[in-house]
Amino acid sequence: MERQVIDEIQQLKKEKNAVILAHYYTWPEVQAIADFSGDSLGLSRKAGETDADIIVFAGVEFMAETASIISPEKKVLIPEGNLGCSLADCITAEKLRNWKSQYPEAVVVSYVNSTAEVKAESDYCCTSGNAVNVLKAIPEDKQILFCPDANLGAWAAKEAGREVILWKGGCHVHVAMNLSMLKKAAATYPDHEILMHPEASCSAEIPEELKEKTYIYSTAGMIKHVAVSAKKKFLIATEPGILYELQQQNPEKEFVAIDSFLVCGSMKTITPEKILAALKYETRVVKVNDELAAKARKPIERMISINR
Question: How far apart are CA 305 and CA 125, in angstroms?
């Protein structure tokens, strides 16, 4: 990365009172220039806490929407336009309304990886970091609809001891992380502890021989686990962008991605140069209209109020 690009970004941040938020799945050079890196929940909280006038969100579209909903008075910029998410795209507000009509008394929990329109039709949002606690917080006599990620919903329901009706959606990166891939990677790296994201399709079918050394976490949970673990070697089953933060915080430890080629194409389109352009020209503004934002804000605020 050119020093000139970094210097220009830092200068514009000062001039415009801007902050850069980057998801763990972006490139290392993007995370390196961010003021805060994090998972969806962590970045949502930062968006609400910052006193910056401008938020540059290095993430996909729904994440920038969430920042706009939480901080409507701030200008939210995204470095690249039309950054879709295979998971968020698998359900629409209309599809959710139709689903809800079949279960009129049910509580709807939507993963934060969803559009503003879907959030507005939901009772709660959740992330992989607090999905279990969100389910536990819902009265036991209530039926629960969970969307759009079936793998996360199934895992969270099991951990929370709740019965949940699942929308059959998934992240293409994590869905590809199947049992065969897990067994092969574990055989290749037998001394490595396994840290797995609950979106992974194999999260609900861990082989008996691997259960003792496999832990299911959000990306933020993985970071916390590694910090206190006596183990030195880890096999990471999520998008490999997280390896940058893990290595930065634990330079003496070894991290291997379950498959380094399974990446989020949308996240990887974001570059420092595009962040610079976003700051300079302020052209890609993400703004959720006030009426929609007011509806979507309620389930997000419920999510943020529930601890991991």
Answer: 11
Q: Using CA atoms, how far apart are residues 34 and 19, in angstroms rounded to an integer?
A: 8
pLDDT at 44: 80
Q: Do 41 and 66 contact (CB within 8 A), yes or no?
A: no
Please tell me the predicted confidence (pLDDT) of residue 157.
Answer: 96
> Scanning the structure block, which residue is given the tokens 């509580």?
107
What burial class does residue 245 get, using C-beta atoms within 10 Å of its C-beta: 0-12 exposed, 13-18 middle, 19+ buried? buried
Model's pTM, two decimal places?
0.92
Which domains does the chain possess? 3-84+267-289 (3.40.50.10800), 88-170+295-305 (3.40.50.10800), 177-257 (3.40.50.10800)
CB of 125 within 8 A of CB of 298?
A: no
Q: What are phi and psi of 38, to 5 degrees?
A: -175, -175
The long-range contacts involving 32-35, CB below 8 angstroms and separated by at least 24 positions, are 32/1, 32/244, 33/1, 33/6, 33/9, 33/272, 33/275, 34/58
Residues 213 and 280: beta-carbon distance below 8 Å: no
Asked if 26 and 241 touch (Cβ cutoff 8 Å), the reply is: yes
Q: pLDDT at position 13, please?
A: 97
pLDDT value, residue 1:
59
- Whole-number pLDDT of residue 307: 60
* pLDDT at res. 8: 97
pLDDT at residue 170, as a whole number:
95
Is-contact 78 278, C-beta < 8 A? yes
Q: What gap in Å lies between CA 227 and CA 204, rounded to an integer?
A: 25
User: 113-138 in b/e burial notation, b at 16+ Cβ within 10 A?
Assistant: bbbbbbbbbbbbbbbbbbbbbbbeeb
Which stretches of the chain score pLDDT less than 50? 308
